Amino acid sequence: MAKALGLQIDILSRHAVERRLRQYFKAKSFTSHFIVTANAELYYQASRDPVLKRAVEGADLRLPDSAGVLWALRRQGARRAELYPGVELTQWLFGQDLRIYVLGARPEILSRLADRHIAGRHHGFFTPAEESRLISEINRLKPDVVLVALGSGRQELWIAKHRGRLKTKVVIGVGGAIDVLSGAKRRAPYIWRKWRLEWFYRLLREPWRIKRQINLLRFALAVLLERK
Ligand code: UDP
Predict the structure, then answer these.
(1) Rounded to 5 degrees, what angle do the CA atoms 133, 182, 194 make?
(2) Which of 122, 139, 140, 176 is buried deepest, with most CB atoms within 10 A?
(3) pTM of the model
(4) What tens-digit pLDDT sequence spans the chain (228 residues)?
(5) Domain encompassing residue 48
(6) Whole-angstrom Cα distance, residue 162 to residue 137?
(7) Nearest C-alpha to atom 4 of ligand 1 is from which residue?
(8) Residue 178 Cβ < 6 Å to ligand 1
(9) Do 150 and 124 touch, CB atoms closer than 8 A?
(10) Of 189, 105, 92, 185, residue with least CA distance to 145
């Protein structure tokens, strides 16, 4: 476990994360273990918003999802911190023999996902009034895992609020991973990721993200100002 900007993150190798998840899936009961994939934006939001912070800290596993978070953790002395981006975790889950429910993303994106392994799906543009029906549908299907893609911050709040009612073994906030997996969006090519410029690649392709990316600057500043 390591801490940066007041938020605890688990320091585990990929192998250890996958082992832990296999244990969760093996259990007979529906304990809806909550996994957070923490990127810099979520991290910054949570460091400013006590409700979101509590939601993230209530998770069973918090994994560093982005280069910025890795940098913040390493500055705080967590040398062994390893990235496990949500998109790669999602790909790994799709490669296992699991029944997956996807909640979130746009309807046309969801319809592109192959049926193999998909126990059910629902887009992420529902109203609070539709939530009970949605949760009943998930509970009827009893999937091994629910992937929640509602955007960072919002999805963690949603999970923290509803996980107690969900009949599933694991529930994970996966952000834009479904967009990438469906083939609708491309992940930054390897070289951009290697140079920790994934955020810049995203900005070039989706310039309207600039407003949200200002939070990345705020995050960097807060990390630099934090005492080691
Ligand atoms: N999304 C959704 N409902 C919403 C807002 C967003 O289902 O009300 C989906 C969006 O279509 C995308 C995913 O949430 O598939 C992640 O959104 P975004 O890329 O904005 O989030 P990030 O991963 O950057 O936090």
Answers:
(1) 125
(2) 176
(3) 0.95
(4) 899 999 999 999 999 999 999 999 999 999 999 999 999 999 999 999 999 999 999 999 999 999 999 999 999 999 989 999 999 999 999 999 999 999 999 999 999 998 888 999 999 999 999 999 999 999 999 999 999 999 999 999 999 999 999 999 999 999 999 999 999 999 999 999 988 888 889 889 999 988 888 999 999 999 999 988
(5) 2-227
(6) 14
(7) 150
(8) yes
(9) yes
(10) 92
Both tokens of 6, joined, read 């007041």
Residue whose entry in the numeric block shows the structure tokens 């990438």 = 180
Number of domains within the chain: 1
Residues 149, 104: contact at Cβ < 8 Å? yes
> Could you tell me if 68 and 40 are in contact, meaning their C-beta atoms sit under 8 angstroms apart?
yes
Out of 150, 174, 198, give the residue to mutate to test ligand 1, the one with the largest number of ligand atoms within 8 Å of its CB.
150
